[in-house]
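[Automated response] Your request has been received and processed.

Submitted sequence:
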Amino acid sequence: MSPRLAVFCIVLLDIMGVGLIIPVQPFLAQHFGASTTVATLLGTTYSLMQFVWAPVWGGISDRMGRKPVLLVTIAITLIGHIAFAASHSLIALFLARALSGIGAANIATAQAVLSDTHAPAERSRAMALIGVAFGVGFILGPLLGGLLSQVDYRAPAILAASLALVNLLFVALRLQETRPAYAINTTTRRLRLSALFSASGQLRGLVLTTLLTMTAFSIMEQSISLYIGMKWAPQGSGSRIQLASRLTSTYLVTVGLSAIFVQGFLVRRWLKTAPEIRIVRVGLATLIGSLILVPVLGAVGSFNLFLLSGATLALGSGLFNPSMAGLISKSCSEEDQGLGLALNQSAVALGRILGPTVAGALLAVNSAGPFLTGALLTTCALVTALRLRITR
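Generated structure:
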């Protein structure tokens, strides 16, 4: 099996598992007594584990190979989903999401598989395939999660665990090791976030851009389901969890469909003629406009029109993510591909820690607060990206 197809399948099954749980997660937390702020902290816990573990897994994969790391992390994800399905308290939910976050810190290792098997000039286009997997996963996952949550709140997590088991068997039986044999067990790269401070100024600038962007995006991501609930499924309405979950899953499906088009068609074509840094800047500008569009369309009151904001958010992130991954890969030596991509993934995870931490508080103050704050942070990211001078 080609590395591209293998990585696509691995990421697709991973993201479907995540997407299955997203529609029901905040409302289940509220069912167990969590406030709006505490409900969004479930996302913080998940991302905190990614932040801590991404450089660890990335460094280990540089030293020991990609396949062993993927097997271990997917097994941890499996346990996390089972724990979520068995949860009967808020504390149990947090512990389950922590386990899943440790396992989900393997995206950089999957990206490293593509770096191992593609020339630098082809890496950004290859990374776009991961974006397509994200898009498909965020169509099928939330769609199925929204449907299954109507039957039982545990059903999405049970299916997520089943997909993790399939993923584990797939990697064990079908994925070939891509790390060159001569490189395994010969490097002594740092396995800590402190490696960022010894990195080049170009790499640090790219990682900072990712951090600002993902903080903004995660504020939106953690707020959007609660925002939809406030606007179209207010407290006191019948079957609120089911209605809010269904509307959230519809919104995420719209995001997923748009992401498939952007990363499967638009970005892969544009990368043939335009440098990655230009696409990153256009993506950031699109995200700024999209985040402002969320409360504007929400105020209009039409949910069908509101879906347009999901499509434009997917356009901006779809332009940004694979192009940034390609730039990160080009900024690292061949020996440091796993660690470099993992540092960027840690910036993604740190953004997903900072975002949910403030999302609930911003939403409690003003329903437009999370999205306008995200637009401001993304503007800072765009300024940083405009100042970067890419040398390789």
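Summary generated for your ticket: The chain has a mean pLDDT of 85. Residues 29 and 164 are 23 Å apart (CA to CA).
If you did not submit this request, please reply to this message.
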